[in-house]
């Protein structure tokens, strides 16, 4: 149980922010992000917010042009993670005014609420 | 915030933002990196403030996705800075740029510790956050006590304690020993009384991790969890900032319920009652609301409650209430809820008694199989697979076949395998099974693995009623214009074997069969050509009375293929051609394939293998372990009692007599020998018979049957999914024979007797012998008893070795309290991965072991291994085949090189000579292969005397790196029981150990001596051995 990584990706598929909670090399991260982004961004609103990838389950949510993707273990409570994303966004909104620029310490702080 | 006042950084960021393309950006970044690098390098006396500026830039560059592989030292050093802005940057950037293995982190452990135990709350938070993110093993060891103190301290503010809990969680994950169980269960119980919900949430995360590893130690915390849930459910004392859309901290609720799922049951009646009250309230009180977030949050809680109800195996009423809810969910429009409904229904299948209720939703689930969303389709497929049984197999399998037409490629292989397994497990009748598999091959040939079609051939071969039907079906498929190659293989095989049964039907004369198969011949690959050629031989044999025209055509094809590029086909063509001229004897030689011995389906094995992952312990697996067994395994067992219809479980037809089943290793040889005997045919035919009765595909499916139990078979059994079944009846049998006993009456009997002998579980293989085999091979069985089989696979690279232990539970009940410990001798460094506590029924876990060789030694590592089966504790100490020669690599030297080294090592302790007496009398070539088996490359020609041998190898260890070793063996043609052994290397210890090691292998040690050739020598042996290596010079004189 636990969150493995949090990714913020824009509509073009570029990673804007990444936080990993397990050690992956830069190349591994790049490959993983590429695969996940390709899978998730192609999905429509009518499809569910969960994508199974390798041994992760990716829970994602879209806010305007920004995608929040959270990689979790296969047995995590998916909806709780989905709402964690929203909580994160609300917190960041309150802190920065608008989710355009943010910094990592903030994310880490929010992360602490759930791990 | 901290960026204000740093103009350089702002300028850099706006420069980057103004870049028009990636190339420009890269140039700008490179320039900046170069700048930072020179600053760090040249100006020794950088102030903390200056360092801070550059480190911020490094972080920004890192966030842009560039590798920042320098400046780590400067970053880390900022942590020691006295002022907050610098310290903050140090902590933050360190946790972003560095990972736990970075050596620089070690330097700051002390500073971090000072910050943690210091009075400054802000510093405490920074330090705890960083350690919580990247703390590794060393941090665990040095910081855990201080972090624990903060967590339980009453003077700290919640914000610090929150972080301390999460930090401790990280440290615990890195090194579970940091939490001393005895002391912690009480403290944990106190911590769970916490009123502050923020601290409580963090503590709960820690608690979940603790109980997932050891629930028994925390029994006292169970009522506290229930109380927290009650508090949430009643919305008592919940501050506004911890309600999320009106729901009291949904995450805390989820976590508390998750923690409870790690406890096997809840016995305390009052806690149980209270919990069920809460669960009932959640189940009944969750409504669909308009607000998406509120809806998600409440359903997150609801789904966790469902999981907990399932886990607790609640009263039937509550269970059916859950199934009803799930049934509602899988029909809603909201895709997330539908997905989770399907997922949780699959989990529910593990619980008994609800299958029937789930079956009512079958139609709805099948609809989901056509959903536009692949995630949902996957769940639906899983669920259908899990809920399939005899009653609905026909419908479900046909649905899967239909879906195969439209399924995306990513899913087809899984789909094909699942359909094949279900068809096999639950076929209402055999002809239906054949229909399904043939359709499967036809529709998704590319995704049908060979195992699937081998299996259908086995069934048809073993069931006489089926043969004509299958042949007719195959004939039908051959009429189709386009056909998958696998289908050509099956059809050719079936028509070759059983085509003659169709002789009375229209357009099924041998000639017509031949023509229709022959049409495919030019388009297929060589493996199919081989099968087709065999089919022709069979058709030819079955054509009675002989048809001269047909014979001519077939012989022409044989003739043509005699020079085919593939050797296998060449051989078949030549042999069939010769055989076809033998006249009536042909009929005996090419008789029908004998029935296959009963064996476990390769498909089922494949599926089980896919189910059992590595030793990962996740909640779902734990939960399914606590249930008696997972769905597929239950279904795989033969119905022992109960009026199950005979057809509900396809089994291969029993062997003609039990006798043959037990001796199935030699079954082919038996048929082969019998055929010529009856006819008085020449013995040379026998060789051909063996080849003909084993067409290539079959011999692939049936390794143990096609060859006597060779090492390769043991290997196949090991590396394939572990042979999981009842213990073999006879202890002396090899494991390969044991395989065959599966599902036969013998297997069941053996299972029954197991209970009686459980007190004294003895290995059923010769452990000593297995060890010796593994010394020369890198994979095989290490140990086996009625409950467990331990296999081993090793890889060696220079002085590193990687072993994987495969622990397979052969029983239908879990093996508990698994412990494995390696007692390494001082010359190894051994790292054993964590060992799971339990092996689920019929499952296999893999435990990787990393070995580093420090120096040469003959000591052997011992695996101390124990488990509990029922009440009996079984303990075994097994030697691990990590022996000296595994770190040797054969090498061939030129004579110049050899003699150059040989001469330089002419020093007493570097080159050691000894006369060895009482060696196994071996001819020279055998002696050479013995040396080769020790990874010593014998170089012929270096020593001119044909009775001598010279061998070389490289020895790898951490101290010597690659060290050359030279060995010379001089034998005495007059007396083969003695020889002179000389070993030389650049390392004194290595020379000695290697010499002793080789000697151990040369000497005829008592266990290997079956029939001692000469008694006097034996008597001489014991005193000779110790004396010899003390004084090699004296012994040399003795020999000459």
From TrEMBL, chain A:
Principal location class? membrane
Q: Which GO terms describe its biological process?
A: intracellular protein transport
**Keyword Hydrolase on this protein?**
no
Residue ranges the record marks as coiled coil: none
From which domain of life does this come? Eukaryota
Keywords for this entry? Membrane, Protein transport, Transport
The record's InterPro entries line, in alphabetical order, gives: AP_complex_ssu (IPR016635), AP_mu_sigma_su (IPR022775), Longin-like_dom_sf (IPR011012)
Task: Tell me where in or outside the cell this protein is found.
Answer: Endomembrane system
Q: Where is the AP complex mu/sigma subunit domain?
A: 3-100
Please give an example of a GO cellular component term from this record: endomembrane system
Chain segments annotated as transmembrane: none
Q: Which family does it belong to?
A: Belongs to the adaptor complexes small subunit family.
Please name the PANTHER family in this protein's record: ADAPTOR COMPLEXES SMALL SUBUNIT FAMILY (PTHR11753)
Q: What is this protein called?
A: AP complex subunit sigma
UniProtKB/TrEMBL annotation, chain B:
InterPro entries membership:
Adaptor_Complx_Large_Subunit, AP2_complex_asu, ARM-like, ARM-type_fold, Clathrin/coatomer_adapt-like_N, Clathrin_a-adaptin_app_sub_C, Clathrin_a/b/g-adaptin_app_Ig, Clathrin_app_Ig-like_sf
Q: Which residues bind a 1,2-diacyl-sn-glycero-3-phospho-(1D-myo-inositol-3,4,5-trisphosphate)?
A: 7-8, 49, 53-57
Any stretches that span the bilayer, and where are they? none
GO BP terms in the entry: clathrin-dependent endocytosis; intracellular protein transport
One cellular component term from this protein's GO annotations in UniProt: AP-2 adaptor complex
On whether Protein transport is a keyword of this UniProt record, the answer is yes
* Record-level Gene Ontology MF annotations: clathrin adaptor activity
Look up the domain of life of the source.
Answer: Eukaryota
Q: How does it sit in the membrane?
A: Peripheral membrane protein
Domain Clathrin adaptor alpha/beta/gamma-adaptin appendage Ig-like subdomain, chain residue ranges per copy: 772-881
Location in or out of the cell:
Membrane, Coated pit
What is an example of a Pfam family matching this protein? Alpha_adaptin_C
Q: Which UniProt keywords apply?
A: Coated pit, Endocytosis, Membrane, Protein transport, Transport
Q: What does this protein do?
A: Subunit of the adaptor protein complex 2 (AP-2). Adaptor protein complexes function in protein transport via transport vesicles in different membrane traffic pathways. Adaptor protein complexes are vesicle coat components and appear to be involved in cargo selection and vesicle formation. AP-2 is involved in clathrin-dependent endocytosis in which cargo proteins are incorporated into vesicles surrounded by clathrin (clathrin-coated vesicles, CCVs) which are destined for fusion with the early endosome. The complex binds polyphosphoinositides.
**Record family assignment:** Belongs to the adaptor complexes large subunit family.
What is said about its interaction partners and assembly?
Answer: Adaptor protein complex 2 (AP-2) is a heterotetramer composed of two large adaptins (alpha-type and beta-type subunits), a medium adaptin (mu-type subunit) and a small adaptin (sigma-type subunit).
- Name used for this protein in its record: AP-2 complex subunit alpha
Organism placement in taxonomy = Eukaryota, Viridiplantae, Streptophyta, Embryophyta, Tracheophyta
């Amino acid at each position: 149980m636990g969150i493995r990584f949090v990714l913020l990706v824009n509509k073009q598929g570029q990673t804007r922010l990444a936080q990993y909670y397990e050690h992956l090399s830069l190349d591994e991260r790049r490959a993983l992000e590429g695969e996940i982004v390709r899978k998730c961004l192609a999905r429509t609103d009518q499809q569910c917010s969960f994508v199974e990838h390798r041994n992760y389950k990716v829970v994602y949510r879209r806010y305007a042009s920004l995608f929040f993707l959270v990689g979790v273990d296969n047995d995590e409570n998916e909806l709780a993670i989905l709402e964690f994303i929203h909580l994160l966004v609300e917190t960041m909104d309150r802190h920065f005014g608008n989710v355009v620029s943010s910094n990592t310490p903030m994310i880490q702080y929010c992360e602490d609420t759930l791990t | 915030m901290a960026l204000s006042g740093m103009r350089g950084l702002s300028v850099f960021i706006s420069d980057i933002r103004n870049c028009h393309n990636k190339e420009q950006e890269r140039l700008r970044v490179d320039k900046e990196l170069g700048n930072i690098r020179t600053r760090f390098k040249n100006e020794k006396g950088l102030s903390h403030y200056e360092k801070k500026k550059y480190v911020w830039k490094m972080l920004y560059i890192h966030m842009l996705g560039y590798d920042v592989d320098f400046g780590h030292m400067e970053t880390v050093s900022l942590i020691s800075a006295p002022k907050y802005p610098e310290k903050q940057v140090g902590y933050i950037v360190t946790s972003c740029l560095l990972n736990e293995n970075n050596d620089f982190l070690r330097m700051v452990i002390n500073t971090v510790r000072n910050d943690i135990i210091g009075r400054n709350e802000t510093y405490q938070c920074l330090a705890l956050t960083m350690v919580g993110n990247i703390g590794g093993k060393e941090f665990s060891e040095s910081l855990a006590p201080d972090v624990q103190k903060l967590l339980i301290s009453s003077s700290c503010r919640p914000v610090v304690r929150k972080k301390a809990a999460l930090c401790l969680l990280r440290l615990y994950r890195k090194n579970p020993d940091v939490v001393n169980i005895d002391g912690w269960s009480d403290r944990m119980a106190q911590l769970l009384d916490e009123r502050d919900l923020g601290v409580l949430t963090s503590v709960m995360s820690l608690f979940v991790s603790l109980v997932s590893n050891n629930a028994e130690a925390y029994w006292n915390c169970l009522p506290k969890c229930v109380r927290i849930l009650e508090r949430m459910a009643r919305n008592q004392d919940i501050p506004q900032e911890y309600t999320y859309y009106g729901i009291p901290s949904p995450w805390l609720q989820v976590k508390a319920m998750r923690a409870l799922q790690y406890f096997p049951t809840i016995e305390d009646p009052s806690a149980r009652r209270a919990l069920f009250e809460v669960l009932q309230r959640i189940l009944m009180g969750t409504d669909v609301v308009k607000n998406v977030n509120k809806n998600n949050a409440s359903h997150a809680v609801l789904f966790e409650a469902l999981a907990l109800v399932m886990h607790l195996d609640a009263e039937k009423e509550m269970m059916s209430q859950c199934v009803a809810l799930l049934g509602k969910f899988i029909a809603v429009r909201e895709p997330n809820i539908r997905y989770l409904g399907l997922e949780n229904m699959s989990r529910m299948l593990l619980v008994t008694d609800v299958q029937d209720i789930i079956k009512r939703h079958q139609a709805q689930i099948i609809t989901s199989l056509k959903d536009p969303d692949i995630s949902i389709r996957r769940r639906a497929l899983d669920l259908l697979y899990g809920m399939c049984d005899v009653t609905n197999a026909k419908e479900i399998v046909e649905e899967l076949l239909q879906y195969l037409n439209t399924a995306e490629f990513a899913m087809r292989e899984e789909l094909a395998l699942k359909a094949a397994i279900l068809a096999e497990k639950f076929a209402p009748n055999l002809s239906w099974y054949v229909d399904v598999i043939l359709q499967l091959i036809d529709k998704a040939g590319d995704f049908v693995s060979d195992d699937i079609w081998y299996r259908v051939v086995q069934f048809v071969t073993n069931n006489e009623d089926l043969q004509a039907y299958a042949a007719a079906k195959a004939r039908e498929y051959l009429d189709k214009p386009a056909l998958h190659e696998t289908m050509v293989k099956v059809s050719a095989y079936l028509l070759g074997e059983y085509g003659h049964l169709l002789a009375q039907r229209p357009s099924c004369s041998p000639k017509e069969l031949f023509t229709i198969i022959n049409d495919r011949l030019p388009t297929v690959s060589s493996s199919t050509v081989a099968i087709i050629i065999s089919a022709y031989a069979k058709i030819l044999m079955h054509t009675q009375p002989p048809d001269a025209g047909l014979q001519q055509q077939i012989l022409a094809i044989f003739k043509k293929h005699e020079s085919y590029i593939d050797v296998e086909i060449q051989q078949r063509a030549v042999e069939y051609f010769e055989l076809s001229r033998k006249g009536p004897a042909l009929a005996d030689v090419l008789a029908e394939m004998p029935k296959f011995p009963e064996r476990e389906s390769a498909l089922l094995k494949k599926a089980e293998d896919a189910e059992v992952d590595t030793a990962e312990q996740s909640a779902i697996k734990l939960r399914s372990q606590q249930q008696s067994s997972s769905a597929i395994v239950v279904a795989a067992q033969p119905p022992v009692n109960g009026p199950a219809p005979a057809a509900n479980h396809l089994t291969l037809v029993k062997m003609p007599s039990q006798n043959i089943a037990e001796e199935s290793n030699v079954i082919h040889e038996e048929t082969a020998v019998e055929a010529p005997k009856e006819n008085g045919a020449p013995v040379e035919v026998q060789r051909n018979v063996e080849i003909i009765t084993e067409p290539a595909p079959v011999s692939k499916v049936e390794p143990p049957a096609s060859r006597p139990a060779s090492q390769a078979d043991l290997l196949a059994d090991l590396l394939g999914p572990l042979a999981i079944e009842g213990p073999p009846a006879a202890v002396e049998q090899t494991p390969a024979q044991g395989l065959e006993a599966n599902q036969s009456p013998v297997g069941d009997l053996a299972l029954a007797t197991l209970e009686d002998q459980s007190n004294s579980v003895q290995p059923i293989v010769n452990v000593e012998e297995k060890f010796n085999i593994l010394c020369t091979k890198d994979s095989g069985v290490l140990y086996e008893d009625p409950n467990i089989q331990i296999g081993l696979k090793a890889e060696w690279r220079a002085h590193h070795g990687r072993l994987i232990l495969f622990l397979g539970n052969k029983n239908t009940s879990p093996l508990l309290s698994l412990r494995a410990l390696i007692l390494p001798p001082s010359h190894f460094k051994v790292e054993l991965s964590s060992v799971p506590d339990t092996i689920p029924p019929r499952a296999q876990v893999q435990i990787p072991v990393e070995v580093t060789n420090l120096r040469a030694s003959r000591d052997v590592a011992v695996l101390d291994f124990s488990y509990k089966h029922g009440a009996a504790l079984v303990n075994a100490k097994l030697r691990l085949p990590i022996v000296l020669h595994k770190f040797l690599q054969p090498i061939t030297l030129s004579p110049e090189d050899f003699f150059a080294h040989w001469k330089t090592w002419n020093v007493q302790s570097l080159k050691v000579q000894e006369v060895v007496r009482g060696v196994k009398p071996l001819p020279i070539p055998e002696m050479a292969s013995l040396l080769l088996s020790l990874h010593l490359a014998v170089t012929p020609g270096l020593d001119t005397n044909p009775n001598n041998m010279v061998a070389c190898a490289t020895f790898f260890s951490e101290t010597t790196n690659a060290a050359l070793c030279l060995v010379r063996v001089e034998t005495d043609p007059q007396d083969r029981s003695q020889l002179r052994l000389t070993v030389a290397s650049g390392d004194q210890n290595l020379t000695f150990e290697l010499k002793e090691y080789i000697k151990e292998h040369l000497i005829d040690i008592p266990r290997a001596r079956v029939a001692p050739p000469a008694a006097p020598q034996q008597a001489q042996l014991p005193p000779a051995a110790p004396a010899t290596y003390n004084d090699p010079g004296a012994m040399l004189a003795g020999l000459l």
